[in-house]
Amino acid sequence: MLRAIGSRKDLKQQTYYELVADLLENESVQALKQYRHHIKTTRFQHSVNVSYYNYLICKFFRWDAVSAARAGLLHDLYFYETENYDRAETNESHSAHHPHVALQNAMEQFTVNDVEQDIIEKHMWPATRQMPHYKESYVIVIVDKYCAALEYVAPSLRNVFRKVFRRKQAVASA
């Protein structure tokens, strides 16, 4: 089952999946499963989370939801561990550098339209300094941070709730 964090829906049963299946099944996108991201998830899962929520928000507003979904999957398409990034090589922070790498990788492997390019390249704005040109690009700026926070906090919250629930069960059965 393919799910986004915070959702119980099987994304393979959604219209969303039809729009991004070619990307999800791609070897390079699958390779993102090998990289940790935001401490508690993989870069692949993070990209699915961002892609799905980008899609939902843009679909709600009747914006370019297809480009939002596809760019969301490709926005972190880089193949190195973030903690191994050497700022001295590029003279840029990782936050400013990796969108360029992700865009270059995406354009080498897929057909990427102008909206998708802007979304990928500007997803770390204001760290990227250049302002986004499309409303869909502003959505990913927010969704990317929201998903990162959710990915980091959700596993910890689940553990806290489980402990509290077990204590209540123990007290109730005593």
Which stretches are low in confidence, meaning pLDDT under 50 for 5 or more residues running? none
Radius of gyration: 18 Å
Mean pLDDT reading: 87
Structural class label: mainly alpha
- What is the element string, with H for helices and E for strands? HHEEHHHHHH
Q: Going across the major beta sheet, what is the strand order?
A: 1-2
Largest sheet: 2 strands, antiparallel
Name the beta content range. under 5%
Judging from the principal axes of the Cα atoms, what is the shape? globular
Q: Kindly, what is the distance between the CA atoms of the first and last residues, rounded to a whole number of angstroms?
A: 38 Å
Helix percentage: 55-70%
Q: Can you count the beta strands?
A: 2
